[in-house]
Specification:
Blueprint (H helix, E strand, L loop, with lengths): L7 H15 L3 H18 L5 H24 L3 H29 L10 H19 L5 H19 L2
Length: 159
């Protein structure tokens, strides 16, 4: 039995109307979420950088889970495309948006790294060039990436 399709104007208008009604509420929701993250960070005694790591993990979680599922199905190309694409899109869109917002609000933007952060960033760049520049990868490169990430997480809690 085939069900009749709804008229495209009705579904499109409904989506547009719901977006217009819900969009003003989003900043308030994000503000409430930031309060929860800050309180939880303070409750467990974590440094402020933990909140940034938590938000980044939350943002990259859907594509990360899909990339892991693709890797488990032995589809490495799809896995790499998902993981790198989502992280580059997130970083590539977030940093300029924050830059524009700080300029518009006449605030100061500091994207500085301490010495440890710069060493880890440089190590990650070199490791990424070695991993993805050759066209072939193996489990050893993935393990080294995981070790660098573990060092980063350790350095968040023990500076």
């Amino acid at each position: 039995m085939l069900l009749p399709k709804p008229h495209p104007c009705r579904t499109g208008c409904w989506r547009s109307a719901s977006r217009c009604c819900l969009s003003p509420c989003l900043p308030w929701c994000f503000w409430q979420f930031s309060l929860v993250v800050d309180v939880v960070t303070a409750m467990i005694g974590a440094p402020p950088a933990f909140a940034g790591v938590l938000v980044a993990l939350l943002i990259l979680l859907p594509e990360g889970v899909t990339a892991i599922a693709a890797a488990r199905n032995n589809d490495l190309q799809k896995s790499i495309n998902l993981a790198l694409g989502s992280s580059l899109a997130t970083i590539g869109l977030t940093i300029p948006a924050v830059g524009v917002a700080t300029y518009a609000l006449d605030k100061e933007l500091v994207l500085g790294l301490n010495g440890q952060g710069m060493v880890l960033l440089l190590l990650t760049f070199v490791l990424s060039m070695l991993t993805f520049g050759t066209g072939r990868t193996n489990i050893l490169f993935g393990l080294v990436h995981m070790v660098v990430f573990a060092v980063f997480v350790f350095m968040v809690f023990v500076p």
